[in-house]
Design goal:
The structure holds two protein chains of two kinds. By secondary structure, chain A is α/β, with parallel strands linked by helices. Helix content of chain A is 33%, strand content 21%. Chain A folds into three domains: 149 residues, 3-Layer(aba) Sandwich (Rossmann fold); 67 residues, no CATH class; 89 residues, no CATH class. Chain A has an eight-stranded mixed beta sheet, with helices on both faces. In chain A, strand 9 and strand 10 form a beta hairpin. The radius of gyration of chain A is 21 Å and the shape is globular. The two termini of chain A are 24 Å apart. Chain B is of the alpha/beta class. In chain B, the strands form two sheets. In chain B, strands 6-7-8-3-9-10-12-11 form an eight-stranded mixed beta sheet, with helices on both faces. Chain B has a four-stranded antiparallel beta sheet with strand order 2-1-4-5, covered by helices on one side. In chain B, helix 4 packs across helix 5 and helix 5 crosses helix 7. The chains are: A alpha/beta, B alpha/beta. At the A-B interface, helix 6, helix 7, helix 8 and helix 13 of A face helix 7, helix 8, helix 9, helix 10 and helix 11 of B. The complex binds adenosine-5'-triphosphate (2 copies), iron/sulfur cluster (2 copies) and magnesium ion (MG) (2 copies). One iron/sulfur cluster binds next to helix 12 of chain A. The site of one iron/sulfur cluster has 12 residues of chain A, from helix 12. Chain B: This is ABC transporter ATP-binding protein.
């Protein structure tokens, strides 16, 4: 993994939002401005041709990282580098924009309802001048639609004539149309049935092997994440809790939050395995707990956890931000059932 | 559970879309029922007609789509032929809808709290102060952190999964007897998902709420549904108890679908997939619509269309289960 130079680097990346109430209400209630730290200092690399996935609770900042990664948000602090060049400094060049594409979480909001599908898919091809003739363009659009399991004849329709999953396939075809090298996929398959999902994931793997694509992948479905990832970052309240090679994360999760997350996975096999939601209250991102943000819910929390924010430190092959792991007392928390079963 | 009189009955439902190039049949001869307290899971290929079935039930088919045949009954009373105003009252009060697309349900110009309180004051005999108190409670129940602080936020200030939870709270807050939920947990992480599922199950158990649960997430189906309907190309391919359909599907399409579920306990080089794509509505094959992709296809499949047949543990629309069919 260390062999290839990183295609993508995030360094101490942060993005804060001002979520203050309107001035008048603030004056009445005598309260100040409020800041929500959606992403608060995270660092990771993705080598060329690899896939890094981000998992974590809803609202922990995954989509915000995705938007930062393709330059849709500017960082409040820190930097993102793509193929060695800083994205923040100047607006991304046309070539950079062609080389990185994003598949959005919400296939409804991301497709222009007034455009025919063929124009939606062809738009990046035109914008970046990737073909010279109309016939070439039509062929390319037909090929892309077929790749994602739609028919070339579907090109004449409008987005509202498609089901949710079909629309997501249109946005995947569009993202692939500019021949990107780096794809940010925010929940790309959660609107798809499992057989189309399998087709799309197989296609992604095949493109990766054939063309060396690099992926930043976001999904709530840990089974899907296991199939596609080389590395996995577990986020909690805007920060990374653990960053580890995919297989070791599933075989030996280290951070207490990672372990808790794995106990909450649905029991598809209907073995009767208990599904345990992560205990305690989901904390407010506006007033996050002191020290380690996970401490109010953590069975291993001690005084130090309330005072001192843990930094990422290497633990085995992984990077973990947890005092208990650092102090070697993480064995007090049992391994989740799915890791026990694998061992 | 199934001996109680059904709360919802869908009989031979057919939905058509007249277009310039001819009439498209989006749903054809769809029948099922749901009893009080029962959860019917609906799964199947993307584009199979799951959302359309839900939209027909709640009376929100998008024109030019229309019910061309069949009936929909709530508590024995037809609701497919009601006028818009009558249906609007039933929706919200008796049927709660959770849509696949949260943005169509939430008004971007109103705060989350206002949308919840207005829904409750419209449908329940309570005043604004009580409604606000309950709104905070509902937001807490669906797992919105710091609900009391965030109730006055606008939808765009929430993450994708948080918006989805607001939609769920909106559908539940008027305490309907039937919930039509289209991908309610897709945008949620596993922990919140577990919490929402537990809430829905509790409503079914304690209040006898019936639910049609459309989802691609087989884990959610396995945990929540009592029975499952598998749809393909506008029809019900198989229907039966959840364990039978998920673990021992009889219809070849259901079997292929279940085989495509990615395993959690190991990494595989290539996931099992069903090759090819579902037919377009304008080109549904003759006979069994699945026949061009079916590994078990035989001569009869290309000529005649199978209806739901008794397949022992489930009912399956497949000629393999006709008495005179050649087996093996
Ligand atoms: N434009 C914005 N204004 C204010 N707050 C925002 C904005 N965008 C995101 N947030 C907040 O930032 C936090 C992280 O949001 P984000 O969308 O990145 O979460 P996520 O991890 O993608 O969640 P999900 O799994 O639900 O999609 C949330 O608390 C959200 O409410
Ligand atoms: N306005 C419309 N005009 C024409 N066809 C439509 C229209 N809306 C939907 N369809 C078609 O009707 C079929 C059923 O769509 P529906 O949204 O019910 O699918 P679904 O099973 O919910 O799929 P998904 O799992 O992807 O959400 C699809 O083939 C779709 O292309
Ligand atoms: S730092 Fe402390 S509170 Fe945080 S995860 Fe580790 S043990 Fe738990
Ligand atoms: S009827 Fe024939 S083609 Fe259709 S599912 Fe059964 S065996 Fe396959
Ligand atoms: Mg998100
Ligand atoms: Mg749908």
């Amino acid at each position: 993994m260390a062999d290839a130079p990183p295609m993508f680097e995030a360094r101490d990346l942060a993005r804060h939002f001002d979520v203050s109430r309107p001035l008048l209400q603030r004056m009445v209630a005598r309260e100040g401005r409020r800041t929500l730290k959606a992403v608060d200092g995270i660092s990771f690399d993705i080598p060329k041709g690899r896939t890094l996935s981000l998992v974590g609770e809803s609202g922990c900042g995954k989509s915000t990282v995705a938007r930062l990664a393709v330059g849709l948000y500017t960082p409040t602090a820190g930097s993102v580098r793509f193929d060695g060049r800083d994205l923040g400094a100047a607006r991304a060049s046309a070539d950079q924009r062609r080389r990185m594409q994003m598949i959005f979480q919400d296939p409804y909001a991301s497709l222009n309802p007034r455009w025919r599908v063929k124009n939606i898919v062809a738009e990046p091809i035109r914008a970046f001048g990737l073909v010279t003739t109309k016939a070439e363009e039509e062929m390319r659009v037909a090929e892309l639609l077929t790749q994602v399991g739609l028919s070339p004849l579907d090109g004449d329709k409008f987005p509202h004539e498609f089901s949710g999953g079909q629309r997501q396939r249109i946005s995947i075809a569009r993202a692939l149309s500019s021949n990107p090298e780096f794809l940010v996929c925010d929940e790309p398959t959660s609107a798809l049935d499992v057989s189309v999902q399998a087709q799309i994931l197989n296609l992604m793997k095949e493109l990766q092997q054939r063309l060396g694509l690099t992926f930043l992948f976001i999904s709530h479905n840990l089974a899907v994440v296991r199939q596609v990832s080389d590395r996995i970052g577990v986020m909690y309240l805007g920060r990374l809790a653990e960053l580890a090679p995919a297989e070791s994360l599933f075989r030996r999760p280290r951070h207490p939050y990672t372990r808790a997350l794995m106990e909450a996975i649905p029991d598809l096999e209907m073995t009767g395995r208990d599904r345990i939601p992560v205990g305690g209250e989901v904390p407010s991102p506006i007033t996050p707990p002191s020290g380690c943000a996970f401490h109010p819910r953590c069975p291993l929390a001690q005084d130090r956890c309330k005072r001192e924010r843990p930094e990422m430190k290497s633990a085995g092959g992984a990077m973990v931000a947890c005092h208990a792991v650092e102090e070697g007392r993480d064995d007090a928390m049992p391994m989740p059932a799915i890791a026990r079963d694998a061992a | 559970m199934s001996n109680a009189a059904p709360l919802l009955e869908v009989r031979n439902l057919r939905v058509e879309f007249p277009t310039r190039r001819g009439t498209l049949v989006a749903l054809d001869d769809v029948s099922f029922s749901i009893s009080p307290g029962e959860v019917l899971g609906v799964v199947g290929e993307s584009g199979a007609g799951k959302s359309m079935t839900g939209a027909a039930i709640i009376g929100l088919l998008e024109p030019p789509g229309r019910i061309a045949k069949g009936q929909i009954l709530l508590d024995g009373r037809r609701i497919d032929n009601l006028r818009y105003e009558q249906m609007r009252r039933i929706r919200g009060k008796e049927i709660g809808a959770i849509f696949q697309d949260p943005l169509t349900t939430l008004n971007p110009l109103y705060t989350v709290g206002r949308q919840l309180t207005e829904t409750m004051t419209t449908h329940l005999p309570i005043g604004p102060a009580e409604a606000r108190r309950r709104a905070i409670e509902w937001l807490e129940m669906v797992g919105i952190p710091a609900a009391a602080q965030r109730i006055d936020s606008y939808p765009h200030e929430f993450s994708g999964g948080m918006r989805q939870r607001v939609v769920i709270a909106l559908a539940l807050c008027a305490e309907p007897r039937l919930i039509v939920a289209d991908e309610p947990t897709t945008a949620l992480d596993v922990s919140i998902q577990a919490q929402v599922i537990a809430l829905l199950k509790r409503l079914a158990r304690e209040k006898g709420t019936a639910m049609m649960l459309v989802t691609h997430d087989m884990g959610v189906i396995a945990e929540t549904a009592d029975r499952v309907a598998v749809m393909y190309a506008g029809r019900v391919a198989e229907i039966g108890p959840v364990r039978e359909v998920v673990k021992h599907a009889n219809h070849p399409y259901s079997a292929g679908l279940m085989a495509s579920i990615p395993p959690l306990d190991r990494r595989v080089e290539r996931l099992a997939q069903i090759d090819g794509a579902m037919p377009r509505l304008s080109a549904i094959p003759r006979g069994c619509a699945y026949n061009p992709r079916c590994p078990k296809v035989f001569s009869r499949c290309a000529d005649e269309r199978p209806d739901l047949l008794d397949a022992g543990t489930t009912r399956a629309a497949c000629w393999l289960y006709a008495l005179e069919a050649p087996h093996g």
